[in-house]
## 1
Amino acid sequence: MTETTRRDEIAAGLAEVEARVAEACRAAGRAREELTLIAVTKTYPASDVRHLAALGVGHVGENRDQEASAKARDCADLGLAWHFIGQLQTNKARSVARYADVVHSVDRPRLVAALGAEAVRAGREITCLVQVALDDDPARGGARPRDVPAVADAVAGTGGLRLGGVMAVAPLGEEPARAFARLRQVAQAVREAHPDAGIISAGMSGDLREAVANGATHLRIGTALLGHRKPFVR
């Protein structure tokens, strides 16, 4: 596949996603401007990131540090906002703090402390979202809903970090609308204590409509943008 063909393929995917987001916004009585689209480019090359940037996408999401750090270096000239959305071990905090503008997967005080220390060391401020385990099972990442306020307070009180809001993935086998309605309640409780923490990161290729209906502000879209072709990493 030539790069021109690939750019056209991504442009078509982006147009389709934008149409779906616009329709979801109409159905929910919301403005498109309330939503930020994050292109999830895991397993795809830096050249795809460049195509997305040329098409006007300004937010990129990755879930593995090794891959994300390399792409962030390769695309440093593009002025993109980099979102780390995967589970994060504390020993990767130093690396992630060098390039991530937003970390979506903050779920425990120890990680908060590690990220804050590394953000200060790097002279940066990182926006953190508290990941919520909507199935109440933190083994797969996320804080239990009852533990979210304490994690949010820890982020808000840590130098180098800014509390942005919450993030969640709809549990497998559950109706996304029900899951995202619970996330909306958790988000509201966080905002009551921290009024500026208005981000709700929810919704992927298969459930963006339900996420928009339940107040999502950030959508994490991969497959619908980049397709099912066999991925490769440069």
Note: The longest strand covers residues 161-167.
## 2
Amino acid sequence: MSDSDAAAGRKKPNVPLGCCEGLNNVDYSKMDLIPIEEFIRHINFRDSSFCIAVIAIIFNPLFWNVVARWEHRTRGLSRCFGSPYLACCSLGLVIILLNVLRSHSMTVVMKTQARWEPMERTEVFYFGISLMVLGTLLVVSSFLALGFTGTFLGDYFGLLMDEKVTGFPFNLTENPMYWGSTANYLGLALIGASPVGLVLTAVVALAYKVAIRFEGPFTEQIYQQRNQRRKHQ
């Protein structure tokens, strides 16, 4: 074997045959990036209303997670309102108002920024309608299954449910309230042929994804502690 062959052998990555053939055969220089460029050109990322909408999207789950965990640790809101039920309801009302503000800020951006002609299609419009129907169904059915305190972090206030809800819509997805809300925003963006609406919906989905990573294990821990206390009683 020559030195050049040996060098080539040393440089060859040790990967399964055919693993990267598809990627190696792609000529990225021939990819048509014009649709992506057109999509981005229809979005004004420096618009103050866009920034306000992004802040509202990120702030909401951050706010209710911080406040609810503080309540779970100190019972400060329960002492302030005289009962955990009133405290939970008060936080729930604040969360509702914040969500209304978020929805309003996102709607303002979608209305003021440019529409994108490829999205102005009948099938896109009706797909958006379908997503909003599905999203509303998930949100409403989730609320009915959990009740007000179950929906608005009653677990953190000591208002625990007797058992985990496993019926509809929780047999479809573990977090139907979050993903139903995301579907509503996506449907609204498609109905309005709004590129900035799609971007904001992606931010909503990311914010919810992060919130779930924190809320899920913490809620499980709360119920595990409850079960342990029951065993010792």
Note: The CA atoms of residues 114 and 224 lie 50 Å apart.
## 3
Amino acid sequence: MGTPLEPRSAQAEEVVERLEAEYPDSTISLRFSNRLELLVAVVLSAQCTDERVNEVTEQLFEKYQTAQDYAAATEEQLAEDIYGITFHNNKGGYLKGIGELLVAEHDGEVPDTMSALTDLPGVGRKTANVVLQHGHDIVEGIVVDTHVQRLSRRLGLAEAERPATIEPELQEVVPRDKWQQFTHLLIDHGRAVCGARSADCDGCELADICPSEKGDSAVDLASGEPW
């Protein structure tokens, strides 16, 4: 197996440096043109691919351009307009509730605090972090999606299993000025090389420092299961 650097902060810095060289244009893949579109896109992306979200929102954003538009629509109409998105019925309700709350409490604007964002229907800390980072240029956390969750454990950067407890572990070791980019780098690497069931360790530029590298390691640290 690979030999991770010690301490973990050195491992994190090396991971970031190598992945920045491999993915120099790494950034968010959701398409949006304003904060409301960003918020809606991220809510829809939960357990759904960004590619599918971008297909659906192309027409959605033409029809719904303000928080008032979402508030005025029925849940059924919104669910129909996002058909094809995972859990479209539930998310239709989220979009209406978001529109109503934005109109009632925020003058139709997307708020810029973690607490206000997580008060919105369907918005957890991960979604709020994305909106803060890409909508308001406020970085106060690390977005832990499924790729970050998997790779941070495989690379020995975190031991916790749940995103909520992985995030503070990563905040301790990832340089603060890299918190935002760290997520995009791990997402790109997870999609291209280090998949959940298709880890290409032979073609991975991190193999020599990865404690899960399956040439020698019998265990995938992301799952705790044998390869």
Note: The chain has two domains: 8-26+143-226, 35-135.
## 4
Amino acid sequence: MNIFSLLTILSFCLNGSGSEVQRKDAPISAPSKSVTVAQGEVGRWAGNCLRCSFEKRVWPAVMGTCYYPVDMDMKSGSYTISRRTTGGKLETAQIIVTETPCRQEDLKNFPKKEFVDVSAVNQARAAKEAAVIGPLIGYKPSVRPAVFDLPVGKPVKNLPKGEGNFGACRTLDGQPRDRHTGQDYPVSVGEPVLSVGNGRVVLAASHFYSGNAVYIDHGNGLISEYFHLKGFSVKADQTVTKGQRIGVVGETGRVTGPHLHLGVRWHGACINPGFLLVDPSDLPEVK
């Protein structure tokens, strides 16, 4: 073998065959899109969206935008989300769920002792009520079309700042209780409570823990909850409009005083309602 042949073989071994060598002008895959969303918050993916998916859950877009509500108890980490555009294109991204520290709320000398040491009768009542509520607020593979817009309306005309206790870890006289699923607003007894959007009342009832409560289905899996009312003026299956009076503020159920508890479930996820009261462009966005 002459020296020319040997150099040719060495060059081939070092550089590889022409089909394996990456050319300088070859396209490089762009990094996957992502969005970071804290527990209890909502991410968005705007632009000609038709359908959205988050893990194994699927739902229609709202006005061309995919919204991804993150439950307050969802484990932190990276999850896959996707969207189908109006042009038929399927796109995927990562949603990075970060942990929201649980605010500790210790309620001492709780005034309503029946909620501290709950009797067997009241435990049975609460369990029966929970069995009715569960299917209403859980994820459903088929949902009514959205009849709401974002941001949603205020639940009272002059809405004060919330008490910042969404997701709080609570104890009553030292006894652990479930996390707080809504945002409390310090509103006086008798103040009119308004529906945050167009929708259909799915339940209006007096419950042990929630007191007088109203649940409204706004379509696209969005359910709003209004607890501890002095009274309500709507009934199940009634259609309501945004800003319509549905009841008045009270202090029924497990409370220390008068206030409005506003809760939101979206595709089964328990989220902070405050994130639906802001301009949706302020929500974390897939980029």
Note: The first strand starts at residue 33 and ends at 38.
